[in-house]
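Per your request, structure below.
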């Protein structure tokens, strides 16, 4: 069985890209998205199409298991694989929700100021959640603290109060496609900018913001 996945992105001509994936390739895409989301300091592009296809694949696997013979060893093996995929999917979604809760003002501001055609970091459901979370946070702060403060202190700027994602943090990565002339910014004022080449299959420890575009394009994999 193959799955037809409408991947969010642009092809070389600037149009939409449609990719046909086998079930194994689909799960591999999910695992890659999970690892990147787990180790990136910021919320990455939503992979809602992959999530939906994986959920459909899980339903299909469940149906096959219900039709399989009782006591067949293959059933136990497929059941373990089913639970493994469920764990990866749940962990991926939980990781994204935790980031939304942690950085919600900045994520919503980014969505508000995004240019037309720019890929969204949030799925429609995540956008609703983020807006509700922000509204609930503002209501809680007002009822518990702000209304008891002097009038000139009864407002709070959440964009200034909530920390931003630390894009200067360091991450481990594995190179999937050879990259040339990657500009690395200095760590101190005494140092200068320099460029590096990254060979396919090599692993690096590097500042996240230096390679953030490569994570988004799939050229490198966070590990």
């Amino acid at each position: 069985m193959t799955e037809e996945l409408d991947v969010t992105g642009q092809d070389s001509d600037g149009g939409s890209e449609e990719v046909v994936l086998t079930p194994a390739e689909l799960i591999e895409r999910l695992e890659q998205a999970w690892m990147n989301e787990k180790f990136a300091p910021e919320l990455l592009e939503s992979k809602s199409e992959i999530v939906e296809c994986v959920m459909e694949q899980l339903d299909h696997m469940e149906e096959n298991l219900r039709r399989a013979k009782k006591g067949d060893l293959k059933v136990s093996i497929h059941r373990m694989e089913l639970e493994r995929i469920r764990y990866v999917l749940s962990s991926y979604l939980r990781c994204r929700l935790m980031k939304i809760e942690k950085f919600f003002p900045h994520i919503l501001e980014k969505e508000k100021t995004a240019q037309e055609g720019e890929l969204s970091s949030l799925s429609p459901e995540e956008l609703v959640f983020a807006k509700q979370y922000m509204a609930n946070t503002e209501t809680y702060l007002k009822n518990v603290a702000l209304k008891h403060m002097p009038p000139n202190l009864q407002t709070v700027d959440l964009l200034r109060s909530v920390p931003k994602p630390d894009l200067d943090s360091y991450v481990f990565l594995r190179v999937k496609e050879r990259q040339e002339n990657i500009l690395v910014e200095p760590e101190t004022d005494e140092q200068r900018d320099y460029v590096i080449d990254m060979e396919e299959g090599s692993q690096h420890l590097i500042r996240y913001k230096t390679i953030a575009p490569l994570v988004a394009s799939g050229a490198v994999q966070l590990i």
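The CA atoms of residues 66 and 75 lie 9 Å apart.

Regards,
D.
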